[in-house]
Design a protein that fits this description.
By secondary structure, the chain is α+β, with helices and mostly antiparallel strands. It has a 4-stranded antiparallel beta sheet. α6 runs antiparallel to α7.
Amino acid sequence: LILFGEHAVVYGRHALAAPVPLAMKATAAEADSGMQLLIPQWNISEYYAYDAEPRHSLQRTLRLILERLGLEQRGVSIRVEAGVPRAMGLGGSAALAVAVIRALDMRFELGLDDQAVDALAFEAEQIAHGRASGLDNAVATYGRPILFRRGEPPAVREVLVAEDTEMVVGLTGREGLTAKMVARVAAAREASWSAYERIFDEIDTLTLHGCDALERADFAELGRLMNLCHGLLNAIGVSTHDLERLVEVARDHGALGAKLTGAGGGGAMVALAPDNADAIERAMRAAGYRAFRVTLPRAEHNEESA
């Protein structure tokens, strides 16, 4: 769940993101030959023979993972139970990559640490999205709220949330393809470079202030910053009618802030609702959309988390 920094993070600015309680569970087993991937919730059933050329990005991703792990000649069957909706701006492809890598690591006792899992998932995201920032795979790997900035290596800081933070996620029901939206923004940036750089700088400033507000549990300020960030994302052309409708419904029913989350072009939005999450969720459903509540839990302020 990206709270601030969409698209700007691709160009070296900060992003603030947190995990959501939707599970992506993968199980790996040995097979006679090739690799089989089954994801019933996404209607995916793939068989990839190692001597064949990959036909699409999913097969290219599988091949990359197997090659990097030295398993390209092993017969492997992977089944995934996907609690994350596909192409809804909630990091589904990154969660899938991390789950598959960890399942293979456990089955073949490869001894991968979090850094290795994150690095390989980032390579997989580059195939899936063309120009990934590394944010989604980092959140999927570490499972904590983070302030992220792209780099070699990326700068990652855990964000210590001051109080339980209630939010509502609304789903448009329309797929938002990250690769397509990233390419669209890149083309627009080339045509209006200075204007887009200024917008990305403004998003970066909002991200840093938003991180501070979240760590202080200043929900009023956090909501104002979310609203401003959504306006800038709308300005660069990644919002849609459904996203605007969901934002309007959330704000009309008392959300302190509401904005799209992820690449846009469909997908999802998020509303800050510390006192009235139930009412906002009901209103979104009444408007014809799917919605669910998310709580960003208060950090345990101890020596380990610090």
